[in-house]
Structure formats: structure tokens, C-alpha cells
Amino acid sequence: xxxxxxxxxxVTRFYTQEGTVYAVNGISYTLNxxxxxxxxxxxxxxxxxxxxxxxxxxxxxxxxxxxGEVIFEGRDLLKLSKEEMRLVRGSEIAxxxxxxxxxxxxxLTIGTQMTEAMKLHLGMNTVAARRRAAELLDLVGIPDAxxxxxxxxxxxxxxxxxxxxxxxxxxxxxxxxxxDEPTTALDVxxxxxxxxxxxxxxxxxxxxxxxxxHDLGVxxxxxxxxxxxxxxxxxxxxxxxQVFKDTRHPYTRGLLKSxxxxxxxxxxxxxEQIEGSPPDMRIEPRGCPFAPRCKTRDYFNLEDCWxxxxxxxxxxxxxxxxxxxxxxxxxxxxxxxxxx
Length: 340
Fold this sequence. Notes:
This protein has 15 helices and twelve strands.
């Protein structure tokens, strides 16, 4: 399994009237062919902005990708012209957004919107494109697909619209599908159906996927690896099972402890919360962005947390692909607490 994409020191800023927004602050990772990467974190952590930076969809002004590289199959996407990037979007990398109602054009039929990309990237005529569009709608579970091509977005339910968006994303057989919180606006039952559908299609098309969400439960069921973001930086990353089993970063641990768990419900324990608020992204980052909310920093009284951003290093006694950005190993804290 080879490397499909490598992100190196990606930095994205927004220059607004209220000041500079430091949205993404130097993140790096690799994505392998056929792999699913889950990107998690609170709202404002830079998850979606990093994806839009990869796709060349940052609105300018006010946004700008200041530095970094996104190497996709040997090409730096950040160095491509707008026309070259337009040919990459849809055909090689596709994106499914959170709210399909704002992504679909309300005055064009579903068929018109679905066939546009196939005509552009695959050179299909209208008849062939409509046939392919109907096949895709049928594939994602929309009944009477041929007839539904002539319907408008408002004639579909929320779950059906999201299925249409997934079908559009798959229409040109992309090597990478980026899904930006695609199930957030749906109820739990439909959410489960969409996730199961995406897993089936991922395996069928053998494509890589980046699944962006704030829901750790969703990531646990769909991802191979996880990337935890906070304040525009990566806090922890690694194999999904390894990170969940041997969580090292205080922020990741806080996220997991705030989730309801069936195995602890009988004990009547209370859910823990991460005290404080996410950082103001208009303040230039200095030190660890999680420092103001971190109980581990309080326990060890670490001054470096305020002044220096910890590098993303392999965790002590961990696997080579389990990385953490923290000045203290959280297991040290546990040992001190347990042994007094």
C-alpha cells in the first residue's frame, strides 16, 4: 500500500476586519491508498479549513494558504493553477459537504448537477452521463433513480440529498473522497445508514477517504487511523485502535471521557467535561493551544506549555505510528496519582 497524499506543514490564515484568524498552524500527515483517516476535534479546530485548503477552495480574500505542501501522487496541489486544480477536483479528489441543501443548486435538477462533472472529466455525452447518474443513484439506495434525475433538491429528504451528494462525489471514480461531517444534520438512524453505505462504497471503489467529524463514535466505526486536531494543530495521531486503547494526549483523553459508555453506565458515573473554552483563533498561537484547559499541565506545573509548541513525536513506549504533541506523557501522571 503506497502513499497517496502527504501534507507537509500546512498553514492557512484568514485576514478579516477583526484581525488575522490563525486557522491551520502547520499540520503534517500522510494518507495511504485505500486508507480511511478520521479527523476529529471541536468546532473551530481547523478540521474543515484544512480540507478546503487541500481542495483549493479557501475563499480569497479573506483566506490564504500561507505555506506548506500537499503532495498528491507526486504533484504539489498548492502549486497548481486554478484550471489545473479544477480538473483535479471531482475526477481525482471529491468532497462531500455537511449540508447538502447548501451544496446543491436549488434551481437545477439533480440530473443536471450530477452529469456536469461526468461531461467535464469523463467526456461523456448527455445520454451516457444520465445513464451513469441513474446507476449511481441506484447504487446509493435511491429508488426509481431514472425518474428522480428530473427532480429538484427540495423534493428529496435530508438523508436522500446526502445520498445524492455521495453519488456525485463517486461519479468520476476519485482516488480520494473527503467527507466533511456528512451525517451531522441527519437523525441517528439515517446517520447509521449513510455510514454503512459509505463503508461499502469505499471498499467497492477501493478509494482513500478523509472523514471529518466531531463524533468519536462515528470515527471508531469507519476509520483506520485517527488525527485529533485542536487550535489548528495536531494533538495526537495513530492507528484508531491503538489511540483508543492507549490514549496519551490530555485532549484526546478528555474527548473520550466526555462520551457516554455502555460499560460504565451501570456504575452511575458522571460524564467528565473539558473545562474552559476553545482558543480564540484570532490570537497568534504561542505554546500549546490546549494549555489553558489542561489538567496535566496543572499537575506537572510545566512552564514550556505556555511558551513552546511541543513537537509531534512518537509516544514513549508506543508504536512507531502513534504520535503525540505534548510536553508530558499522560501515563506518567496516572502513575504518580496511583502511587502517591
